[in-house]
Design brief:
Distance between the termini: 19 Å
Number of helices: 15
Largest sheet: 8 strands, parallel
Shape: globular
Structural class: alpha+beta
């Protein structure tokens, strides 16, 4: 007789003797995934089946509580260690917010998105929004973020030249050494990366396992980061194609951009602009042919001082086919696009609102300009429609758009309607710091860059570092309880369709590289120097983090070069070039294999997650979908660790066998198949120092 049968026999004896078995609160579970909600993304008018599970023969009744309504759930089935209950709820057009009331003898408790509670907690209720869908292709998809200037130079003929124009007081700089560290004020230095370079490396990205390319901004802009858009209608010819290349560079001592005729030709001549758009069309077609998607960066809160609507640099003032900019003339058709604070200063009025006071980033004044609103909605439609066919938008500083919260929410509701009408399968993903739930109610954003519920808890646990490398917290390094609390709390802001497409990054263009955080050096490149970013890094910790990235709910997103061992402090040092010819091949292969594991298991793409056990320097959790269960465990300490982990609560029973798919530790990584057996409801784990293990079972 196995241990599971012995446990069931003991429970039955309790009942025979009139006693209750131990109430297992840890076995209570439900969520919004397809495991427990059918259909998982229902339409208005559908009837949805909601399920709940508990330890077998352990509760008397469970009710679904929705507002003032209470539905007794009927027994559904016994399966292994669990009893399942279900209820059918007809939906209207309004969101369904619910939790569960569980009764066992005199005990009454509630189960919500944070787990078991003695009290009803409105803020943690589950939520289903009829008609809310996120693209299936994005659920658990592997994203790859490309900062184009630093990825690959495929067409040297379109490189920005020395003193091609003036930006923030100095001339542009063409970097000749691809491996040079970025300068501290390097906003005007260019390495030459372009879209042709991306096309040249599509084989590499495909072999890595990438599903989606997310581009930092690629529209016409004067900086290398391009968050200061000059023309939303066109791809920057420096990233695209320069067909007509006449005019002069600026002479030494000349700081007047009206004389930058080479630049003016390059970025205003329609021949170059149309050719660059055609190259983008070609890139998207080729990506789609490889079953890869393309996401664009939408910077709609502000534009740039070079923008043709403002034209502070007078780039467009005398060019055929362009209206006068609002800086140039009080009669400009774009005057309402900006908030001017001095009406008597034209021509050349410098008194306009800039985002956070930056005059190079003029704030767009939507509330005062229906024309601006319509233009940006046109842009939103244009790039996700034929012939461009981009697959969605990442929205820069999306919560800052507009001058009031009320307008901000209305704008994003309209933006969603516009984009989804043009391309129902497009993804809308916002940059956001803090609680995003106000925008994740099913009628604005699909999801966010997942800082609170991924990057930050993960970084604190594995490195003890803040995501900019600005602080080291010994109390958070290896603090499994904090990790469990943070993930549990912040994930409640997401409905399941949003969580499974959330952008889960270790690094990006705004924060230090994760590999650099493993060295525990506090500071930035100005104080520490570029070499310090790669000193004393710990690749074993990096591999642990990659295991979590590929096994946690969401869309794992690789910042270009992370997979090749690129280091760097926060902006601009995090924007180093991809090290072609100098890659860390072991790290690339590790990423490739973890991506393969991620994509081979539906439970990792869109399944439920349950944290099984946390402790100092230890985390263990399970992902499950249907009959498939994947378990991941981490030892972040410098010592070998043994743990007996109770695994009944993720559906594993005595006698079940799990197959190890990946083990990474200080010596590297191994994919040797190792068999583990569940005994007495527990799994014995022996983990080497600084290690992670991934194993799976498919239940019969």
């Amino acid at each position: 007789m196995n241990w599971e049968n012995i446990e069931l026999l003991i429970d039955k004896q309790y009942y025979i003797l009139g006693m209750r078995p131990l109430f297992r609160a840890s076995a209570l579970f439900s969520d919004e995934t397809e495991n427990f909600v059918t259909p998982a993304e229902p339409e208005p008018g559908d009837t949805v089946t909601i399920r709940f599970r508990a330890k077998r023969d352990n509760i008397d009744a469970v009710y679904l509580r929705a507002g003032e309504d209470s539905y007794l759930m009927e027994f559904d089935r016994k399966e292994g260690y669990f009893d399942y209950y279900k209820v059918e709820v007809p939906l209207g057009i309004k969101p369904l917010r619910y939790c569960f009331e569980v009764r066992a003898g005199r005990l009454i408790c509630f189960f919500d998105k944070r787990g078991v509670s003695r009290e009803l907690r409105e803020e943690y209720r589950f939520m289903i929004v009829p008609g809310f869908h996120t693209p299936d292709w994005a659920k658990g998809a592997v994203f790859y973020q490309i900062f184009v200037d630093r990825f690959c130079n495929g067409d040297p003929s379109n490189d920005v030249e020395n003193r091609e124009y003036i930006y923030i007081g100095e001339g542009t700089s063409k970097v000749e050494d691809w491996n040079k560290y970025p300068a501290m004020m390097g906003v005007r230095e260019f390495y030459g990366g372009d879209l042709q370079g991306v096309m040249d490396k599509l084989d590499y990205l495909q072999e890595l396992g990438v599903d989606v390319i997310y581009f930092n901004p690629i529209f016409v802009s004067p900086s290398n980061h391009k968050y200061d858009i000059q023309d939303y209608d066109y791809i920057d010819p420096h990233y695209g194609k320069i067909v007509k290349d006449t005019g002069d560079l600026l002479a030494d001592g000349d700081f007047d951009n009206t004389h930058a005729t080479r630049y003016i030709t390059r970025v205003t001549d329609r021949v170059n602009l149309e050719a660059s758009n055609e190259l983008f069309i070609e890139l998207v077609k080729e990506a789609h042919r490889r079953n890869m998607r393309v996401i664009l960066d939408g910077v709609f809160n502000h534009c740039g001082s070079f923008n043709k609507w403002l034209d502070r640099e007078r780039i467009y003032e005398n060019q055929p086919g362009y209206e006068k900019g609002a800086y140039v003339s009080a009669d400009s058709p774009y005057r309402s696009f900006f908030k001017f604070n001095h009406d008597g200063a034209w021509p050349y009025n410098p008194h306009y609102d800039g985002w956070w006071g930056h005059d190079t980033l003029p704030k767009l004044a939507y509330e005062h300009s229906p024309k601006l609103y319509e233009y940006i909605m046109h842009i939103a439609r244009k790039w996700v429609s034929p012939p461009y066919n981009a697959d969605g938008w990442r929205l820069d500083v999306a919560a800052d758009l507009g001058f009031s919260g009320e307008y901000n929410h209305q704008f994003w509701k309209d933006f969603r309607d516009t984009v989804k009408e043009a391309n129902p399968d497009a993804l809308i993903l916002a940059e956001h710091y803090g609680d995003p739930r106000a925008w994740l109610q099913g009628d604005e954003w699909d999801t966010v860059m997942n800082y609170d519920a991924f990057m930050e808890p993960l970084t604190w646990f594995f490195t003890g570092m803040e995501k900019h490398s600005d602080e080291y917290r010994q109390d958070l390094l290896g603090n499994g309880m904090h990790f469990e609390w943070a993930m549990g709390h912040y994930m409640t802001s997401f409905m399941a369709p949003s969580l499974h497409v959330a952008m889960n990054e270790l690094s990006n263009h705004d924060h230090s590289r994760f590999l650099t955080r493993t060295n525990h050096k506090v500071g930035r490149v100005a104080a520490l120097g570029s070499e310090a970013a790669s000193a004393d890094v710990d690749k074993a910790v990096m591999r642990e983090a990659v295991v979590m990235q590929m096994t946690w709910p969401g869309a794992p997103t690789i910042y270009y070069g992370d997979e090749a061992g690129v280091c760097g402090f926060t902006d601009p040092d995090n924007r180093r070039t991809y090290p072609w010819g100098h890659e860390d091949e072991q790290m690339i292969e590790f990423h490739r294999q973890m991506i393969r594991i991620h994509k081979s298991h539906p439970a990792l793409m869109r399944g439920s997650v349950k944290i099984i056990q946390t402790d100092y320097q230890f985390i263990c959790y399970g992902r499950f979908l249907g009959k498939e269960i994947v378990l991941a465990a981490f030892n972040n300490s410098g010592e070998t660790m043994e743990r007996e982990v109770r695994v009944h609560d993720i559906g594993l029973n005595s006698g079940d066998h799990l197959i190890q798919m990946m083990m990474t530790d200080r010596d590297g990584f191994s994919q040797d198949k190792v068999l583990y057996e569940v005994k007495a409801g527990e799994l014995l784990l022996k983990l080497p120092p600084t290690s992670a293990v991934v194993m799976y079972v498919v239940k019969r």
